UniProtKB/TrEMBL annotation:
Function text: Involved in the gluconeogenesis. Catalyzes the conversion of oxaloacetate (OAA) to phosphoenolpyruvate (PEP) through direct phosphoryl transfer between the nucleoside triphosphate and OAA.
A GO biological process held by the record: gluconeogenesis
NCBIfam families: pckA, PRK09344.1-2, PRK09344.1-3
Domain of life: Bacteria
Gene name per UniProt: pckA
Organism phylogeny: Bacteria, Pseudomonadati, Bacteroidota, Flavobacteriia, Flavobacteriales
Source organism per UniProt: Kordia antarctica
Record's protein name: Phosphoenolpyruvate carboxykinase (ATP)
Amino acid sequence: MTNNTFSTKTISLNQYGIKDAKVHYQLSSDQLHEETINKKQGIETSLGAITVNTGEFTGRSPKDRFIVKDSITEDKVWWGDINIPFEPAAFDALYDKVVDYLSEKEIYVRDAYACADKNYKLNIRVINEYPWSNMFAYNMFLRPTEAELDGFEEEWLVVNAPGFMANPEVDGTRQHNFAILNFEKKIALIGGTGYTGEIKKGIFSALNFVLPVFKNTLPMHCSANVGKDGDTAIFFGLSGTGKTTLSADPERKLIGDDEHGWTNENTVFNFEGGCYAKVIDLSEDKEPEIYHAIKKGAILENVVLDENKNVDFADTSITQNTRVSYPIYHIDNIQVPSIGKNPKNIFFLTADAFGVLPPISKLTPGQAAYHFISGYTAKVAGTEAGITEPVPSFSACFGAPFMPLHPTKYAEMLSNKMQEADVNVWLINTGWTGGPYGTGSRMKLKYTRAMITAALEGKLNDVDFHTHPIFGLAMPKACPNVPTEVLNPIDTWENAANYNAKAAELSNSFKKNFAQFSAYANEEIMNGGPIN
Ligand code: ATP
Ligand code: MN
């Protein structure tokens, strides 16, 4: 891995319709850091990392994510509110406007790739209006060697123009911002938003179509790490449930924090070369790995500084979704390359804001399929525009916004793989305990970590379990380094009747949501749902 490849090569963007641009090709991380400061688009913090403000958008905007309906996608994509169709002609017209907008500007170009397993390598060229967005792409994607850069040919193109505003009436968008995937042309076109997460999730969504359809590989919205004995663990979960936090474990090598593929060759590989961590309330004490990754080369987003350029991680005045991106080698203990063997343990992370689900439970294969298809969490404020209070949320495969195919397609692949690999599957509630949001409190990170460690070390193999009366989940009666009274949620509530009422409410939400999938589910999966 080269950390600071840069090139003296000059390239022209005429082939893309970007005319007379001043092209900065493949700048080093240090150069982009300086450019960002010189252009007054960022500030160097006391930690050495720069911080930028992403502008109007401080989270993704799922309602403005479109897929061009073309010969490749038409029959395969699960069209609807998540995968919103876009007309090919409208795409072409909007693309022309965007490249026209980028013409004659200073432009930052980055050649990179996705997928750490060379059999799946996807070359990407990223064209950015701003230096820090280009640095984000440098942090998040994988870095070609000098030799690989010679004769580099991109398969996918990302065109990222945060300053370009669409006109919904003529351009076919919902509002001025958009993220559009075009599978025929292999272009991700992003405009009107500076939120960098759109860049990485654009390529993720492309891979979530390409890998299962053409490469027989299961793409997963999960983090992954590997223990001393080479045992891989993966952690599925929606935004804010703990994928990045819990995969950064000093005792285990990090494979990746967000996007992975599970191949038919019994391997799990990272799509990315960097991490993108939430930094709300980050402390050196509780999350040292992530805290120490914030140094020169990293990019903080939307944090607030004091007069000495110290970051106030508790300040959410810009957004709750404050972030940092950094190349994966900013974490001490990493797996190189980012590939592991078949997982031995799979964790489904949920941040249940109702305080109902047990902090750890062991799932049967039917329950695993049911909970994977359900993809329950309570959306905590932040990553998405418009969400400021927790809301119950079901997002199939723990990542529906990024999954172009019908959820059952991914669920089937996962079920088959889980069976073949003979994995343990655990449901972890990193959310509330002792009552719902407002009354109870978030489960202590150190307890969640202890539960995961116990599961990974086989320390829950021989303990007794009892069955949750409503969800049918197997809850361990004891767990090393965790107070017994937090293991069964009803014991943490002041009033058991209130707990039962809330649990019944949540059970109903599960059933209601699952109705749309019951036609696809067999008896085993249906039995994996709430039992009352
Ligand atoms: P995204 O998909 O948006 O990247 P993520 O799943 O990676 O989300 P994290 O970045 O790990 O989520 O966010 C989890 C947040 O919750 C962190 O800010 C972490 O400090 C906080 N947190 C509090 N308690 C816990 C807990 N018990 N387990 C995990 N995370 C916790
Ligand atoms: Mn994450």
